[in-house]
Design brief:
The protein is α+β, with helices and mostly antiparallel strands. Helices cover 34% and strands 23% of the residues. It contains five helices and five strands. It has a five-stranded mixed barrel with strand order 1-2-3-5-4. Helix 1 runs antiparallel to helix 2. The termini are far apart.
Length: 203
Amino acid sequence: MYQKYTTEGFLVWARGSGEADRNLLFYTKEFGMILAHATSVRSSKSKLRTHITIGVLLSITLLRSKSRWKITEAIAVETCPPLAEPAGDGRRGKLAPKSAGYKTFAQILTVVKSLVHGEEKNDKLFGALSELHFFLFKKPGDSALAEAECLAMIKILHALGYGEPKSEIADDASYNNETFFKIKTQKKELISGINKALQATGL
């Protein structure tokens, strides 16, 4: 007997399985990091094919058995430029020539993939990803991306309990000019602190 769930999540990683299936890694609001199987998603007739895209906030419907998750539906919560081609097109999530902001988000998702293992709900982490996603969705200038990425890493490390750089930048700081100015004035120290925290995790 399968149980049915619906939650929001970001597609983090995708890999082919067989001729037309796909294994998909999502970071979700309700369950944390989950690996879900999508049947025939690379088929041209698949309804999922055009919706499952790396870096887009999705509402996903899943079935859960004793052994695995299976995705049955995915709908974009917001209409935004994709980071990559749809995962079902056979290109293994290869980055398309999209905005620098969404490439930044893809890099953040890669870090989260390395730091998070197993299913565990983490409201702070999902909130940190959603907050960054919302900021990038507004298409900020490229000049703010480095500071936004730095702030996102502070929030993510704090949410995961790894500690964050000791600074005046609080983990609940907003994505605005005031915060970005503070980050610019102590960027070297912040980056050094972030790198030390990441090294402590084994990355």
